[in-house]
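User: My instructor asked us to take a sequence, write out its structure as tokens, and then describe one feature of it. I'm not sure where to start. Here is the sequence I was given:
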Amino acid sequence: MSKYFLTLILLAFLSLTARSQYSGLIIKDLLRTDTTSIGQKITYPDFNDPEVTMLKVTIPPGKSTGWHKHNIPVFAYVVKGTLTVELEDHREIKFKEESTFAEMRDTYHNGTNKEDTDLILIAIYMGVKGQKLSIMKENQPQ
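Assistant: Let's start with the prediction itself. The structure tokens for your sequence are:
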């Protein structure tokens, strides 16, 4: 009984200590998922020369990323506006302001700003030094 009681006290102490480290901060879970935005299981590649890249991307009204795909994990946060992502099977997925998502891998898609103001997003790429972050589709419609 005393080991159980001591364990409870220790856990309570650790919990209070962890909370006190963040006293006064507001922490919000933005993304916690094990699948991409189209349901693919998230996997972590085993790279010899890994590199993380974080980009701020601004897409003006009416503009798009062009058809592309990623062969590395990519995570995004929509800071401002609404991102409309079209897939080759003509499905559309909308990501509104303050939403997050894990991008699909090895699937061509096109991100478009269909709004009247700039779309701003933060993209985090888990890649390899010297490797392209996106693979553009050849013979894209103009």
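For the description part of your assignment, you could build on this observation: Residues 106 and 130 are 19 Å apart (CA to CA). Try explaining in your own words what that tells you about the chain.
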